[in-house]
Amino acid sequence: MKFSDIPSHQTAKERLRAMIDNDRIPHAVLLEGPAGIGKFALARATAQYIHCENRTDGDSCGVCPSCVQHQSFNHIDTHFVFPIVKKKSGQTTLCDDYIDEWRDYLSQNPYMDFQNWMTALGSPTSQPTIYVDESDALIRKLSYTSHAARYKVALIWLPERLHESAANKLLKQIEEPYSDTIFILVSNEAKKILPTIYSRTQRIELKRLADNIIADDLTKNFSVDPADAMALAHIAEGNMIKAHNSLNLSRENHLFLDLFMTLMRQAYQRHVKELKEWSAEVAALGREQELRFVEYCQRLIRENFIYNINRPELNYMNREEAIFSSKFARFINERNVQNIMAELDNAYTDIAGNGNGKIVLFDLAVKMIILLKT
Predict the structure, then answer these.
(1) CATH fourth-level superfamily of 3-207
(2) Which of 13, 35, 152, 245 is most buried (CB neighbours < 10 A)?
(3) pLDDT digits over 362-374, tens only?
């Protein structure tokens, strides 16, 4: 992984590059920020740059033996620490026991989708943790002299998932590190890191990705129409993982748009019988999908209000949504938009609280009859 392979984060790249070039590398660096922005990719690129034998134009060369080893996740002086689940109760389980799964995961998930990692572990509902045995193993590895490079690098993904005893052991190593050891920690939730570890790191905060960065990725790598890509990017809120996952939900989005259009058309025409059938159809989806549908309705109501006040530069809809909104948006205005959003909020709360979906949604539909005429 090279710096040039990572979109955005130019300021962080320059800061890391300057530290390494001037031989002023902190013993512990923390890359913190929201999920899905490429923090671990940047950590990998940093480790590769540290070990590169022929740095060129502020980046690793990509072809020397060290770079080749990094690209296959096999560099002898690079150690990975990441959350795992115990294979058997009472049995010592280390990251090395999952190293094949980890390499496969890294090659397919440059933006580090945690849900995919849990699936790779074979336990999608578990709570992966970094256990105290892992701290012991890492300390033992770091006690040896580096083999092929000046520095040994420990890449720790999600230090907020360190077990308390593991964190305390690692703290001692970070406080008094070996002179040839560098820790690079990557966190999605830095506030959950043991405070004494957090305070001993050189922190670099990374921001969400810009919408155009995500849209370019969707267009180039998934052949998404540019307008649709920008809409998906806006909805993803700077999270590349969320943007990629949204492509897999395209069928659901089509379903939700059909249900939204049916709700609004039948409500406008005051077809109560059809709205009752509609509420039963949505309720049959199940609670989780009902909640996602209500969130989808909230988004489209916001988009239609913006469309209605003639601010197209602020609209982020795909082509199908835009076609419907071109005729529907005039019904969402300053007189009813807040009340519609409030009713959708109430419906979401009631469904999340195990309310009867059919009743909640029918009540919402009946209220929509009145609100659309406001």
Answers:
(1) P-loop containing nucleotide triphosphate hydrolases (3.40.50.300)
(2) 152
(3) 999 999 999 998 7
Q: Is it the case that residue 147 has pLDDT exceeding 90?
A: no
93: three-class secondary structure by DSSP = coil
Using a 10 angstrom Cβ sphere, with 0-12 exposed, 13-18 middle and 19 or more buried, the burial of residue 102 is: buried
Instruction: Round to the nearest angstrom and report the end-to-end CA distance of the chain.
Output: 56
Same fold: 3-207 with 249-372:
no
Residue 317: count of CB within 10 angstroms of its CB: 24
Q: What is the CATH number of domain 249-372?
A: 1.20.272
Mean pLDDT of 286-295: 90
Any idea where the domains of the chain sit in the sequence?
Answer: 3-207, 249-372
Confidence band for 309, pLDDT divided at 50, 70 and 90: confident
Rounded-to-integer distance, Cα 66 and Cα 70, Å: 6
Write the CB contacts of 264 (distance below 8 Å, at least 6 apart in sequence): 328, 331, 368, 372
